[in-house]
Amino acid sequence: MTRDDLRTGAVIRYQFLWSHEAGRGETEGRKPRPAAVGVRIPRQSGDVLLLFPITTKRPLETRFAVEVPETEKHRAGLDALTRCWLILDEYNEDAVGRSFYIDPSPPLGHFSKAFFLPLIKQFVARARKATRVSRL
Fold this sequence. Notes:
Elements: E1 10-14, H1 19-23, E2 33-41, E3 48-55, E4 65-67, H2 70-76, E5 85-87, E6 90-95, E7 109-110, H3 113-126, E8 131-134
Parallel strand pairs: 6-8
Antiparallel strand pairs: 1-2, 1-7, 2-3, 3-5, 3-6, 4-5
């Protein structure tokens, strides 16, 4: 994978660290899972990614999460027969080119702009309520 592959909407394999795991002192994600690159923030010291997990476990109704439609599962390289949700109220912050957790394989696929960008706009509006786990 090239660094240019890590752009908004890309779905990659990532060792996502949930906030409840980090809260218990864990530092490693328990398994690689699909995660969406939500935002790439240019920084002089190196670009930072905000990564959102994709899960097959139905989230609680109180979570800011969206079930991924079948068409988007195809685009993102996800199993079309398995229900999955994109979680948008929790994210990992990680560094491009310095991360130990980003799988170097090419992206699984990409979400369409029509599906993903409105969700990112909603995330930005709710960002203060989102839970961040920094992997920097």
